[in-house]
Amino acid sequence: MNRPLVSERATEGARRSEILEIASRLFAASGYSRTSLKDVAEACGILPGSLYHHFDSKQAIATELLERYHAELDAIGRRWLEAPPLGPEVRTADRVIALGVALAECGVRHGAALQLSAYEPHAGASADLVELARRPHGGITAAMHRVLTDGADRGDLVDRVDLDLLADQTCQTMLHVGLARLHQGGTPAAIAALLCTMLLYGVAVRAPADRVLNRSAAMGAASATIAQWSSDPDDDADERRAALRAVARAEFARRGYEATTIRDIASAAGMGTGSVYRLVDGKEALLASIMNAFYTRLSAGYTAVTASGSTPIEKLDALTWLNINARERFSEEFEIQRAWFRSYPPETSTLSDSLKERTRLIRDVVAAGLDAGEIRVDGEPLDVVGLCVRDLIWVPPGVLRRSTPRGVFAHARATVLRGALAPAAR
Predict the structure, then answer these.
(1) Scanning 65, 148, 315, 336, which has its CA 20 to 30 A from the CA of 412?
(2) What is the enclosing helix (H) or strand (E) of 311?
């Protein structure tokens, strides 16, 4: 008697899942804010009216994608806390890698939800959706912390490693694998394993002492760049355009790029909208001007460090310090960048050329280190190794919020350069 009803429900459930999968691909490829319900309907091969039978809004789709993502992360966290697939008797490195791979593959499966969590929905999104996107991933961090604590209790980790920072960094870095299409060339499992291996074993064959690293020419170049950022905030020769850019930067960071209008910027700057348009072509051009100025200054620091006469390890160390200070000095630009990536995922953004150039510089440093026998990384192509090193010397913002810049830098030296594992556990 009830079989037709059950069949209808199963068909409807399958159709909802198909719509969610297609919408997830579109959101991940084009950005949530730039994808309409009409786009989703066309990709599904149905009329927009038929789509409303399953979801009453784009936010309803985003909400269900986020709920599915959080549910899978929570399940992974519970499994590793209550009945881990690999118990404490297994090598610490193998346990960290196994959990890391599970997180990376989850991030890849839920690319759109991961993007929403990393960059947050646009300013017009409902409070419930924003709250869901901001929800912390406490379960997986607790699970990673348990794995690391088990390892520390049996002497597998060095004393200098901060387990809280390492657990947080490992989880955030693993999920980031799902954001980075620039990781093409390796599977999610291979990328996750390589990143975990770098944190556990370090990339340096013999890392110099801190006093040597602190006196390197590369560190001198990084410090000079950081000092210049503070003394010369904007090098635009047109003072009015520089002042307008400063106001727009603050407004974009405070309101969100999508919610900020030229009228808002003009009002905050005490100008008429016509005067603003005489200085810039529009909001998008103003955003590009702000971000290109930031990228130019950061890239100048990269060039100075990589052109120094230092060793490859000294250069990676100095670039890490440069990146940490960039997060501090250009906090507004990083906040704006999140909004930019909401509309234009990194691989489609016209601003990605600067990122690719800095990635090339890192790859060249890594190549020189491999050739000189200073860096040890096996099993993956150079391009993939360079991208993984890039990810690790850009410490996740959540980790930066847990400590001071100096504390985070000491943590980076203790893990990325020297490795968290004790010699006997390697």
Answers:
(1) 336
(2) none
33 or 44, which is more confident? 44
Show Cβ contacts of residue 94 under 8 Å, excluding neighbours closer than 6 positions. Answer: 86
Distance CA 104, CA 117 (A): 15
What are 350's two structure tokens?
């016209």
Angle, helices 312-329 vs 405-412, to 10°: value is 150
Q: What is the pLDDT of residues 248-267, one digit of tens each?
A: 999 888 887 777 899 999 99
Specify the residue for token string 């002492």.
Answer: 209
- 269 touches 276 (CB < 8 A): yes
Q: Let me know if 322 is exposed, middle or buried by CB neighbors in 10 A (0-12, 13-18, 19+).
A: buried
Question: Cα separation of 416 and 394, whole Å?
Answer: 11
Specify whether the CB–CB gap between 178 and 188 falls below 8 A: yes
Sequence length of the chain is 426
Half-sphere exposure of 273 (CA within 13 A, CB side): 6
* Token reading at 88: 């404490």
107, amino acid identity: G
Taking CA atoms, 302 is separated from 142, 188, 249, 263, in Å, by: 35, 28, 23, 36
Q: Give me the domains of the chain, ranges plus CATH numbers.
A: 1-56 (1.10.10.60), 58-203+377-426 (1.10.357), 213-374 (1.10.357.10)
Taking the whole predicted model, whether its pTM rises above 0.85 is answered as yes
Mean pLDDT over each residue of the chain, to the nearest integer = 88
Count of alpha carbons within 13 angstroms of residue 127, beta-carbon side: 0
Distance CA 198, CA 413 (A): 12
Please tell me the predicted confidence (pLDDT) of residue 231.
75
Strand partners, 194: none
* Structure tokens, 244: 């307008």
Residue of 171, 160, 93, 210 lying closest to 414 (CA atoms)? 160
Strand partners, 359: none
One-letter amino acid identity for 286?
A: L
